[in-house]
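ESCALATION

Customer reports they have been waiting on this structure for their group meeting. Please prioritize. Original submission:
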Amino acid sequence: MQQEDLLMTLAEVAVTLAALSGVAGVLGGRSPGLGRALLLRNVALIGMGTGLFAVLPLLFRGTDVPASSVWRGCSALAGLVWFIAFLVHYPSLKRGLIPVDWAFWLSLAISINGIGALGWNVASAGPLSSQRYVAALLLWLSIAGLNFVVSVFSARGEPPVA
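Update from on-call: job pushed to the front of the queue and completed.
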């Protein structure tokens, strides 16, 4: 499978996951809980972001822009957005709106690996840059999937107020 096909499939899966989070939010309206709503919002945002970043390198097909520059630029932008997204969502973690448990630590480990792969592309773009970029997007999408599973199948509801 070529990278273009893989990126388009990744974009389709990401947008579908974002739409499913909306459906889960509507269908689970009886007892959404603020933590659950934030997790579903994260699924939608990560899904749409992954879809955007999966399509972004394809916009440069057939141009005179060198492939290494495309992967370096897309990786820098995706890594920056990923890092900023973590900083923006950190206050909800700190306030206890989203429980810090195994899913949080797994998401953090996934984020470190994904941002590391994107940083590697920025620092040293080469023949494997497209594969590292796709792997990082898959890691980002796995965080959305993890948030989706936790929010839909978790029976917790609201976290306790300290």
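Sent to customer with the following note: The CA atoms of residues 12 and 51 lie 7 Å apart.
Escalation resolved.
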